[in-house]
Specification:
alpha+beta; Helix Hairpins; Immunoglobulin-like; five-stranded mixed β-sheet; about 35% helix
Length: about 250
């Protein structure tokens, strides 16, 4: 609390700086939780060190045995309850906001995780009877998902086989991709650049190959990119089944 209230810039404690509209909220709860844990840890280590020094064995005389200390027991019961209640409140509050979905996001992307790669389907494309634009990763060739800066994007996750987890470290967020279940989340990306993404759930023999890239570009550049894809000659889309068939080994 002292660090957060002071003028000092609190470090991220291992987290990236973040690139979405959810960054301040996620970083605040992470920093607060880390500081709370550090304060409790230092206090407990201090008590252990004090006990080791002050009550070390000096003679063979058995020290006076104390059954209980009511004020101390009340203290170490109430303090953890207060800490857990505080962490629960802020976690629940922020989780509600992070999971909130708008009625009309600027665009939607279907994220399909399969053994052992990714397919991204732009659900707002495919007008005039054309199929939606898809980007499918190949063995040794991760898929690149191009996204616009400054627009709300809903990610709709599905899987045809086992549990995967869609994770872009700079999003400070990951969400499991579960067979038979549709998981969703929504963010607005506020920084351009290319960022690596990974599968964060052990899903089989080639789990370590399930990388992908998220390339964030200005809105005008994204519109030009999508227009070029939609107006280009149609090419056979690589389906999930076809891509999966080219992989070797079997999953768990």
């Amino acid at each position: 609390m002292l660090l957060s209230l002071s003028a000092c810039d609190v470090p991220n404690f291992g987290f990236p700086d973040g690139i979405t509209n959810q960054t301040p909220r996620i970083l605040n709860i992470w920093k607060g939780s880390f500081i709370a844990a550090a304060v409790v840890g230092i206090f407990v280590w201090g008590l252990i060190g004090f006990a080791v020094v002050a009550y070390r064995k000096r003679t063979d005389v058995l020290p006076r045995q104390i059954r209980y200390n009511l004020p101390v027991e009340i203290l170490y019961t109430i303090v953890p309850v207060v800490i857990v209640a505080g962490l629960f409140y802020y976690t629940a509050r922020d989780e509600i906001q992070i999971n909130k979905l708008s009625k009309n996001p600027a665009m939607s992307v279907n994220v399909i995780g399969f053994r052992w790669n990714w397919q991204f389907r732009y659900l707002n494309s495919g007008t005039d009877g054309k199929p939606p634009i898809e980007v499918t990763g190949q063995p040794g060739q991760p898929a690149t998902l191009v996204l616009p800066e400054g627009r709300s994007i809903r990610f709709i996750e599905t899987s045809p086989d086992v549990i995967h987890s869609w994770w872009v470290p700079e999003f400070l967020f990951k969400r499991d991709v579960v067979p038979g279940r549709i998981n969703q989340f929504e963010v607005t990306i506020n920084k351009t650049g290319t960022f690596i993404g990974r599968c964060a759930e052990l899903c089989g023999v080639d789990h370590d190959q399930m990388n992908f890239y998220v390339k964030v570009v200005p809105g005008a550049e994204f519109d030009s990119y999508m227009s070029k894809l939609e107006n280009s000659p149609a090419t056979p889309a690589t389906t999930v089944a076809a891509a999966a068939a080219t992989t070797t080994g079997s999953g768990t």
